[in-house]
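Many introductory courses stop at the sequence. We go one step further.
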Amino acid sequence: MAVKAVALLSGGLDSTLAVKLMIEQGIEVFALNFTSAFCTCNAGGKAHGGCKSESKRVADEFGIPIKVMLKGFDYIEIVRNAKHGYGKGINPCIDCRIYMFNIAKEYMQEIGASFIITGEVLGQRPMSQRLDAFHLIEKESDLEGYILRPLCAQHLTPTIAEQTGLVDRERLLAVSGRSRKEQIGLAKELDINDYPCPSGGCLLTDKMFSKKVRDLLDHTKDVTKRDLNLLKSGRHFRYNGVKIIVGRDEVENAKLKSLAGSGDILVEPANFAGPVALITDDTGNGARAFAASLVVRYSSGKADGSAMLTVTLNGASEVLAAPEPASDERIDKARVC
């Protein structure tokens, strides 16, 4: 009977190589791919469809089954309160790895697999790919000895799979550091030529995007899918506790209008070219007037003395005279990102 292993497959070069090395040793690999609202590779417009599509493509090419898992709202709570801290943004890298390994452990037990494979490389990422981080993650997920990292295994203590002969340790590698030179060379050797999506494309590492996430979590107890979608569009402001989002182009204007829900207010130009502003939970504390001044401010001077705005709430609209544009001081005070 073939030895089974669960592989965390992002579709990037490192995880692809890790899977290939195990297949070369006769291991029956079952791929597990994670997606989230914060994955840059799953954004629209990617030529190859993002990491989800790339992981499926790799799985199809290698002839292995793949299971795609969405990091749900339980993951949002990990982002909100990361036990092991954050990276340069609001990225809870260590807690994220523990989260994924716990799910992979359940899958491993479900299918009767013997260990878990990842494409991690010692020293490649400063927060989660250090030796002490590896040990912490394995301990917290109760997987000590069960996580095999084929690309850097020669730098690490042999796993149970290596100790028991399920895997030939001599055929594993000693890659380390941030350079991809060795991986690229190995890809050529193994005839792996198409790896357009680098692994680990996480918006939570972006300092500017992180400000919007932190603002959302600080003001919202129960985050919704719409809340997460709104994070990816527009300029974000917080005025007297109310969130205001202003579109930056036609695409974002259309998206904000499509995401407007019951109780939201849309402010948009009636007779001039300019952005759309979405106000969530307006409590009558001046947010509507401020949003109107933002629309005028970001209309690039196209709003003259006769400019009018349309204000829509729950399908009912009214047309109002446009106010003076918001001052830089007011904008800076209210700006989230």
